[in-house]
Structure formats: structure tokens, C-alpha cells
């Protein structure tokens, strides 16, 4: 493995370990599948341990695979990451000043290199050398060198079409204290970008020195990024002929649709890495934990709300279910579409009603001329006449990058208006009245046929706490053919509707064939039963064949460490060790150190907790959850003055942080100063009125300070915004009962029964 420049390229958006219970944002663009392999090699003597597969010079691939290598040249994969030089840098570095949103920068050349003069960490202008270039179209980003082997993605990018500098994320990262500032960890490319934009990448962070010593096999997404290290393949070829794909962990030429998708998903998914370095597992979730269809990332119907890199939308599509793969439409080496225009879709959706692509299930296809105005009702050659216009609506990310949704949805403006989702018709004709558009659509196509109950309509009931919510949830979980990623998403909703039936549904999916479903079922079971009741249900998954599932089970069984796990003790120790290793591999991140502190506290290693918390703050002083955790640790250990000083210092630096105001309220409450705590909670709500946790805390403080009616009105307003908030509902029931408002209590209980007739709270009434 070669070690290029002393510094190495980063990613763009924050990667917060999901393992720490936080949302993890993946880096920009493409990732790599660098799977190791444990396939036996004929070059290994009998009984000897096979050597791990190694990355080789990519030029070795071209000797036998000349056409594929030729196709790859100039592709977006090949150009994903390059050294900054005259051939790769397309932006204007002619010493012209640029000012965008008050940020003054100057791009110039010196001694044959490219430089940016811009305010540094101290707020004063300084010169930073451009080390690498990310991407080629429609924009380029530039990675700047900083001390300690750090590479940072600069906040301005180059728009190739307009030939101008622009800000991909307007309004973010203006001040050095802003988490999105280009010098902050959120924009560190070593952790955020490189693994997807290079081949064989290893972050190489040294926690003792705080430096990166990053390595990679080659820049860009090369052959071994998808096929895996090739050393064993070359060994096979030296000893045996005719074995095209021997020596690789996954034979992509013969891989099934799941293995094929998971190869691409290693980069084209929002996911949390479970280690540092090239992936070693055969399955995606041996190396990453993909995100489910969370409300932050996806709309109710599964369309991407944020940039999710296409795995999530495609994994839930009917296309994927019918056997379509990424490589069905995209040339895996060129990266472009195999067929342009509507011809791509017409291979299956045609007047014959027959799929012309091997491996695609054509059952259910209708014989129809989809390329005719009688179907799409738009002029040929214009917007609306292309299949992707209506069935793959585009959303703009990073300011100028239009990306088509790969869920292959059917437009339905009436349903979109009802559910509050986006729609192709409403998006293209935003200037027109939505109800009139919906009526026109109905006249053209009639009532859109749909299976009942629909996933998006059910999810609307579930997340909005509407009557029939739990029934809709169980109906969806009982339906056949539900995509695994949707099932995993629904399992995460079960704890909001607790019952024996909910627990049974979650426990049933602990044996689901899809690892993403099993991992989500582990979380649901843990939320539905107390720790002492988890062992029999979750302990068997400590030996699950997939690492992410083992880790999830071990984490949820932490509470049983003191009482013992019987025959499962050894399996638990191994699995919790895997969890710790996953976090240790990301010690450059404040979030990982915070999660380690939480692990050590739960695992009885109290002497290691404070050190991890202080390391988290050191890694990123702007990561306020770590600051709060340290304050609370000090307070819990009778070091109130020290914790108080630390919190006041944080508040002085972040006076508009609702999180810190709320933490202040908790601390004051613990000290018995209820009036001051109530004021602090009120300040948190004022700064972040949409935060349900802050609102709930404020209501409880009002109640405890004798303001019963004010507390009830606060909770009523919260339930108006979030009817599914069971905790707030139960508190309001208790408060109105205390106030003698029995009719209001009965009304709230009636609503709860409509939401979830099996709720155990109803049996107590």
C-alpha cells in the first residue's frame, strides 16, 4: 500500500457515529467497496494460514481487462479525487478576490501550487495550500492542507457551468465557532470524504499525538474499490487459468441482487463506519450501519429529503424488488447510463409488456406505449416527456447538483398535498394551484390505484399520532413483500405504541433474514422491555453472523453486565469488544469519544469515563453534547463548582445554545433551585421552540413549581404539534387528574385508545 501526500483528503458533511445515538452524516459522493477476502488460495500450503488479501498496483488490472480499464478512464469514479495540478484544477486561481456572505477569500498560484488566502482559526487571513481536488462535475471542491496531516474541505466550491465560485451550503459556517466552518471537524476530509473518493483508504489517526497519518492504495475509485484487494486474484491466475473472478470475496459477475447493491451501497448510502480501513466483511453491515428512512433524511413516501446517495430510495423500490440492479442501468466502469433517454426504461416498460433485460422479473408489466403523449401528456422532447421527469423527480443538493430520486415513484399530486410530501407534478408546476393540478391529473389518469394500506399513508398516521396509528403500523408489518429498509423503519416506531403485540412484532423480526431488520428489531425490543427481561430475547443475537447486529445486541444488554448473562457471557464479551473497537477506530471524532465514555460508564469502567469526555471536548470544543456530558459527570461526582464553571464558560461562548440552557436547567434542578431551573428551561424553549424535549422539561418544571394550569397548557400545545408524544400525553393526563379535570382526562384517554387500543396505560385506568 502506498502512502501519498503526508496529508489526505476529507469528506464534506459530518459523520456522527450512529453507535453513539447521534445522526451520522456521510461524506460527499462516492464510497468504495474494498472488501477483504477469505477465499482459499492455491498458492497457500496445506494447513498454512492464508495471507490477507493486499491491494496491488491498479495497472496490473489493465493487463487482462484492457477494455474495462479504457472505459474507466475519465469516468467520475476515476476522477473522484486527484492531486491539485494544472490538469485537475478547473477553477479560477488568477489572484482575483472573492467575497461571498461576508467571507473574503483570494485564490492564487505560487511556486506551481494552488493557494487560498482566507481567514484562519484566529480570524486573520492566512495562506492555505490546495492539496487535492474532489470531483469534476457539476462542481469541484478543494481540500486544503492543515497541520497534523489534516485535510479540510473548503467552504467555497467551483461551479463549472457558470464558471464561478459559490457556497454549496449557504448561510453555514461563517464563524470559526460554527460547527460547519471549513476548519471544524465536520469538514475534515480524512474522516468524511477520503474513504469514498480513494481506494484502500485508512484514516490512520493517532490519538496520542492527535495527528493523521492517512494512507491509501490509489486516488479515485479504482478497480479494487469495488472488487476488493487483488493480490489473491493474481495468485490464482499464476497457478490456474480460466478463473475470471477467483480470489475475490464477492464475485460481482455472479453476485445476486443484494450483494450487487451492497457493493455500491458502501459509498452510495448514508451509513456509519464500524472500523477504519478497507472493509473486511462480505456483507455491508459487517462494515457499516446504514441509516433507515428517518424523518430527517426521508419524506413519508420514501423520497430523499437530504442527500442519501441513492441506496435508501433504491432499496425500497419496486425496481429493486423485481431484480433491477445499479449495473442494469449504469455501466459500472464508465459510470454513465447504458442507454440514454426513455430508451432505458422502454426496455421493460413497452408496448409488448415484456422485460428485455435478463434477470428482471417482468411479471405484472403492462403492454403500453409509455413514450407517447397519450401516456405522459407532454410534448415530446420537452420537460415532462422523459420518464425520469415524473418517476425520478430531482432535488438539488450542494446548491447546484440535481440528483434524481431512485425510488421510481408514481406522481400523485392529490396524495402529496394531503401528506405534505413533494411530487413531480407539483414541483414542475409550482406556480399553479395544487388542487387544480391534482384535478387535472385525476382527469388524465383516473384515481391512482394503490394497494391498501399504503406505506406512506400508514406512516403519516403513525408519526402524527392519528386514530388507527397502531393498527396501521401492525398492518404494514404484517404485509408481504415489505422492503427490508421500510420494515426496519417501521420497527423504530413500535416503542411509541407499546403493547404486548408490539413486543411480539419486534421479537418476531429478530429472526428476519435482512440484517438491517434484525438490528432495528434489537433496538425496538430493548425500548419495549426493561433490561432484566432482554436476555432471553436478545442474547442469541450476540452470535449473529453480521457484526452490526452483534454490536447492537451487546449494547442493549449492557444493563445485565452486573447480574450476568450466563452461557452468553463469552459471546457478549466478544460483541461488546467489537463495539468498543468500532468506536476506538474513530477516536478523531468527538462523538466517538462521547460514546466510549457512555460505554465505559455502563460497563463499570468509571475511571475511564472522565478522560474520554475531556478527549471528546478536546477533539471538538464546539461539540456541545460532549461539553454537557462532562458537566453532568462532574456534577454527579460531587464536583459541582467545577461543573458549574465549565457550563458557565460554555454559555459565555454560546449564549444562544438551547442545549446549554437546558443543561443549565437540569443542573439547577439537581441543586434544588427550581425557580432558576424553570427560567433556564423557558430560555431553552424560546431559543428552540420546536424541540419537544425542552418543551416537556419546561412543562414539568412549571408543574413542580406550582404552576399547574400553565404546565397543562404547555403540554396541550406540545400535543397539538406532536399528537404521538406519549410521554407528554401521560404527563398531561396526570396533571389534569390532579387538577380535577376528569372530562379532559377522559378525552385524552379516548384519544390514546384511538391511537393504540392495546396501550398498557389504558388497563390501569
What would you report as the Rg, rounded to the nearest angstrom? 28 Å
The major beta sheet can be summarized as: 9 strands, antiparallel
E-strand count: 17
Q: Which structural class fits the helix and strand makeup?
A: alpha+beta
**Which whole number gives the mean pLDDT?**
91
Share of residues in helices = 25-40%
The total of helices stands at 34
First and last CA, distance: 67 Å
Dominant shape: globular
List segments where confidence is low: pLDDT < 50 over at least 5 consecutive residues: 1-49
Strand content is 5-15%
TPR repeats: 658-691
Keywords: Membrane, Signal, TPR repeat, Transmembrane, Transmembrane helix
InterPro entries: ARM-type_fold, Cyt_c-552/4, Multihaem_cyt_sf, Multiheme_Cytochr_ET, Paired_CXXCH_1, TPR-like_helical_dom_sf, TPR_rpt
Organism: Metapseudomonas furukawaii
Can you give a write-up of this model?
By secondary structure, the protein is an alpha+beta fold. Helices cover 40% and strands 10% of the residues. The chain is globular and about 80 Å long. The protein starts with 58 loop residues before the first helix and ends with a helix. The chain crosses the membrane at residues 15-34. TPR repeats lie at residues 658-691. It holds the Pfam family TPR_19. This is TPR domain protein.
